[in-house]
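Researcher: Please generate the 3D structure of the following complex. Treat every line as part of one assembly.
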Amino acid sequence: MVRSPKILELNAFDAASGVRLEPDTENLIGRRQRTFGPSSMLFYKRPLHIVRAEGVWLIAADGTRYLDAYNNVPSVGHCHPKVVAAVAQQMGLLNTHSRYLNDGIYFYAERLLGTMPAELSNVVFTCTGSESVDLALRIARTLTGGDGVIVTQNAYHGNTSAVTEISPSSASTAPRNPDVFLVRAPDTFRGGTEDIGAAFAASVRSAIASMQARGVKFAAFIADSIFSSDGVFPGDPGFLAATAEAVRDAGGLYIADEVQPGFARTGEAMWGFARHGVVPDIVALGKPMGNGYPMGGVVIRPDLLAEFGSQNGYFNTFGGTPVAAAAGMAVLDAIASEGLQENAKTTGAYLLDGLKAVAAGAPVVGDVRGCGLYLGVELVRAGSEEPDPGAAERVVNAMREQRVLIGTAGLHGNILKIRPPLPFAREHADMLIDAFAGAVAQP
Amino acid sequence: MVRSPKILELNAFDAASGVRLEPDTENLIGRRQRTFGPSSMLFYKRPLHIVRAEGVWLIAADGTRYLDAYNNVPSVGHCHPKVVAAVAQQMGLLNTHSRYLNDGIYFYAERLLGTMPAELSNVVFTCTGSESVDLALRIARTLTGGDGVIVTQNAYHGNTSAVTEISPSSASTAPRNPDVFLVRAPDTFRGGTEDIGAAFAASVRSAIASMQARGVKFAAFIADSIFSSDGVFPGDPGFLAATAEAVRDAGGLYIADEVQPGFARTGEAMWGFARHGVVPDIVALGKPMGNGYPMGGVVIRPDLLAEFGSQNGYFNTFGGTPVAAAAGMAVLDAIASEGLQENAKTTGAYLLDGLKAVAAGAPVVGDVRGCGLYLGVELVRAGSEEPDPGAAERVVNAMREQRVLIGTAGLHGNILKIRPPLPFAREHADMLIDAFAGAVAQP
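Model: Done. Output below.
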């Protein structure tokens, strides 16, 4: 079996590791590798064979229940019965593209836009966050006439050709697009007492200046406001306002990638940008939007869309179908009727406190941070700020053995990424805290 | 209301036309324009408000049933009960990304790959045809080290930034990518008695030579083998073999876009390339794959995928989920158990003959052609080869008033595109032929 490439996440299965697996698992891995190829990545040293899910639980073939503290796609809970019913019902009724009139999709569009600032009153539906960011980029480049884009050092925004170029975390040996300029993520752990908002805005201004010095016209700044892939740096509310100002001063567009913070995950707001009092020019939506039904969207100022649309065609066959609308509507309903934003806030705060309490006695933990149900735990060489990716790998796999599933993030892979479905309750937080305490206590 | 741009299809609704509409329709159009913006296109001079669908029927709010001879996404029939049941059941059970083991997705991958030539034994799942073509292009460019791509003059391959650049039919005022070279589609109508295979291969060889003369390295040729958007030119089986040879001779990769001909539509084979005895290097799948559930895929030689994967990350969150697998499996089941390939062949031939019989007495019809359930009818100034887009616009809208839905294609928009769901039966063909006869008889 071919060894997976360097871009493999640290917590991934490695066929060359010689780890002992059940025959059933071995067999499935063989079938997977024969059809998907050897570079297709599986989570954990001992991969999971999952057959069922509900709420915050993933259930393996042997009946073991794993607490899901990783997946943000099934945001209102795995197999949410109302989302499943809405999709099933609409799929049996009508599922066409949007070139016929259908009121379901306009109801959903109106409801979704109702959660946005008044300035953002148009939407273009897509199928994935990648398609959303790709379209957002294309619009920004077309309208500004520039190609220059600023992203953070280890950002991930999706998988199309254009979006891979602005996703430095998708490591590649291909030459980087020279029009893409990187800034450091706002590292609240290593930043000390500095004003992180002013410092980050200054780094964006400086990147714009470098860009212009090289003759590249500035098109857009894009970030997810949690800086998820950089290592989870939500920072204090409002700190991105200065950056938005820097972007506008230079004639660029501010694109908010809401694939990570959007749909109430931060607890403080429905949208990540709203925590910062920023009104973006373009918002890209994806993952949690349909709770697993593939859907995404670009929410945009109508003047920008009209200008783009007057000279460019865009049509997305599976985007904005009545079934997508039904899924999206059921998700918005669940967030509202089940109080999931409030739960993200209170359970998130409880979890943060619990993890901090454990961290106080664990020198390998350098920092615990988070916002709502998006948390990061930075593992370091004891007493230093030096990243310890090996510790992250051990903790993630130890917690998996304790039936609690999390992931890793960051340029060095040393940050634990905790991002459960939103119906995560206090009892689930307690389980996670216990497993975390056990894992960091191990040598 | 802003007038829609020039890229609007000829058969589209135009708010400035002053056409009289029902109040319900007016109201929906208003809501649509406020949320989607003015450039979002609706089919037909008098748009349809569709609320339900089954088999080959679209049913409007007022109960009128329209015969669908346009939509290839609901390929095994609108709201196919077995596809709906498979999706609903799996959605209630498990719907995660593919980084856990799950046998449903490997079963589906094995079954899908079983319909492909033995050389094409790996698959990467995506969510849309656009994502598939985008990935195919990225792989071709990465592996060849070239950027040069050859497409036909009015091709459409999808909507991402990179794919729009190889989709000249997505008219745009943006400068064209200088690495994209265009060849004329194999026009069997105007080609006279020439050997269309030899002529098309020669044009591809010539494009490769022009490319090399300009210092651009050749990466790939891509076509859908029906040349759908160019105006529906399926040609005789086998004619693309010489082109595949020309592509390989120059060190390029042959990408088959199966979004249009794939999944049995041509009647002669499961895949468009198979009609030609060509084994592509990469196959892009989309639209009909999940009968409306958003899914796509790239089928590829394993040596190419391994080389690409050794240095590049690619992960698609919604691609290859257990729900996508369930939808895809139900589609393959329906094609096999309902004899849809055979039906495409026999009903397609019957429809072709019927349309030709009408055409014999209609000077506005220059050519009727097709393969299986993919037909093109070329409308011209009587007795000439000169395209008549106005006639196409009239015929499409007249047929819509007769409750039969088709579309247009081609560089000039003068070709009727007939592409119904595959359970289209002889009685449906008869209805279409009658409506066509009535429409072309009108002044």
